Amino acid sequence: MSKKNLLLFIDLGIFVAAYALSYLICIESKDLHYYFGVFFRSLMVAAGIKLIVFYVMGMYQPIWRYASIHAFWLVIKATVLGSCLTIAGYFFLRIFVPRSILIVDGMVTIITVGLLRFFIRVSRDEGWTLLLPSRWNKNKGHEHKQKILIYGAGDAGDMMLREFRSNTQLHNYHVAGFIDDFKPKGSRIHNVPILGTLQNLQKIVIDNQADEIIIAIANLESQKMRQVVSQCRSLNVRYKVIPRLGDIVNDRIQSTQLRDLDISDLLKRPPKNLDQELIRSLIEGKRVLITGAGGSIGSELCYQVARCKPREMIIIEKNEHNLYQVSTKLADQYPGVPLSSHLLSVTNHLRMERIFEEKKPQIIFHAAAYKHVPLCEENICEAVVNNVQGVMTVANIAEKFGCEKFIFISTDKAVKPSSVMGATKRCGEMYVQAKPSTPESHFITVRFGNVLESSGSVVPRFKEQIRAGGPVTVTDPQVTRYLMLLEEAVQLILQAAGMGCGGEVFVLDMGEPIRIVDMARDLISLMGFRPDKDIAIEFSSLRPGEKLHEELFEAEEGIHRIHPSIMCGRPNLPDSPVFLQELERLVWNAYQEDTAATMAIMTRLFPTLKLYAAAKTPLSYEEPSLDQKSFEGQS
To answer: Hey, which CATH number is domain 134-261, 3.40.50.11540, 3.40.50.720, 3.90.1010.10, 2.30.130.10?
Structure first.
C-alpha cells in the first residue's frame, strides 16, 4: 500500500473516531441509546463527505515531511469546508443532528488531523527527541560526531538545521548550536541553543569543540565575513557558506549546496538605496543599444537591461564567440525581449550608422574598449583606434540621430593616466563630456575601478597559479586597487544613467582600495592552502603603464556625493577646438601606425603618461587635411 493510500485510510479512521468522540462529549450517557440510529446514518455522510473534500483539496499531495505552516492552513480549510458540506448533506437528507456535535466534531477533526501531520514532520526533523526533556538529549550519542556551529539563526539557519537532521547521509554530523548577533543567548530553535554572538566566536568554538562553521546569512557584510574567516583560520576550524539566494530551490538549503567561500564573499557590498523605479523608467519600453556586449561589463549590462523590459535590445560585439554566448543566453532567459545581434567593430562608421538608421536606439551604453594595460602598451596604435576612434564614432552617430542618452563606461585608469589604455579612456571621457547636451539628448560618463569577475581581473590568474602549486606573482607588495563586484557595478551604472542630465562624470563609490597581496593571501587560504607555506608569493615589478595606487577622480573635477554609492562632478575641459584637433591628429597617426607620433600627442595631452624611448623623439609628420569624414572612411 502506498503512503498516500495509507494516510487516506488513517484519516478515515480519524473521521470516524472524531465523530464518535463528539457524541460522547455532547450526549449524556443515559441518552446515548436514543441516538444510535442517527449516529450510524449521519456517520457515513460525515466521513464520506470529509474524505472527498480532503482528496479534492489536495490533502494527499503535499510531502508532509517537508510541510510548512501553509500546509497546516490547508488542514483547517479542508475541515471547515467538509463540515459545512456535511451540514448541507444532513439538511438535504433530513438527518437531524445536534449543532453542538457538529461543532465539536469539526474541532476534534482539526486537532487530530493536524497532530498527525505535525508528528510526521517532527519525526523527520527531530526524531522523537523533541518529546524528551532537553537534559536527557544533551550531547547524547554525539560524542563521536563532527560538531557544527551555524552562524545565523534566521530562516536560512533554520533550513540548514533541518537539512542536517533529516538527511541520512549526514548522520555523522551534529549541530551543537547557533551563533547570532541579534537573538538572545539561551534561546532555542528546534531545541538547539543560541550560544552567543560573533564577538564570542573563539570561546564558543573552544567550549563546544566545533569542527566546522556554516555561515547561514546570504548577504553577510564583507567585514563580518572577514572576521569569521580570520577567527576560523586562527582556530583551525573549517568553514562553509550557504548558496547564494538564486541557487536555493524550493525554499530548501541542501547540504550538497554548501560551498567554499569565494573572494567575492569578502568584497560584497550591496548597493545602497537603488532607485529601481528610476532604472526601470530609463529602460522600459525603450530601444537600447549596448556596444562591447560580449565583454564582462557589456554582457552583465545586457542581462540587467533585459530584466527591465526594453522595447528592443541591439547588441554589438566584434568577438564572434562572445556575441554568440550573450545573444544565446538573452534569447533563452528573456524570450519576450526583441533582440538583434551585430558582429562588427564600433570603428566601422558605415555599418554603425546603418544600424542607428534602421533601429533608432534611444539609450546607448558604450562599453566597447580594449582594457588590458600591458597589451595596450604593446599595441599602442590599435588601442587608440579602437578606444578613441570607437567612442568618437558611436558618440557622433548618437548625436546625429538625437539619441536620448549616451553613457560612456570609463575606468579609474583615466585619472592622471600613466598607461596607453588609461590615456585612451581619458580621451573618450573628454570627447563625450565636450558633446553639447540638450533637453532631449544627454551625454554621460560613468567611471569606476576594477571589476572582480571581469576578463582582465587578476583573480583567475591567481587561481591558476594556486592550482599549479604556486608561486603566486604580485607586482609589488604595496600595490592597491579599487575592486567592485560585477553585478554591483552594473546596477550603479544604470542608477547613474537614470540620474544623468548631460555633461557629468559619475564616479562609483568603490570603498577602500585593497592591497593585492592581501587579496592573494585571502585567495590562497580560501582554496585550502597556507600562504607563504604551501603556496609562495613572489613579487615581480610594476609592468609598463601600471600605477602603484589608482585614483578615482581629480580635485579639479569638483566631485561631490549625490547618492550613497555614487559621486558626481563636472570636469574642466580644455579649449574644445584645440582638443578636438589634437584627437583627430592622434587617431590619424594611429591609423598610419606611427607609434612615435601617436605617443607624442598623447604625452602632450597627458603629461603624466610615461614615454617609451622610441616615443621620445620629436613629433614629425605632415599636417594632413583632416576632417571627420577622413577618419570615417578609414574605419
So the answer is: 3.40.50.720
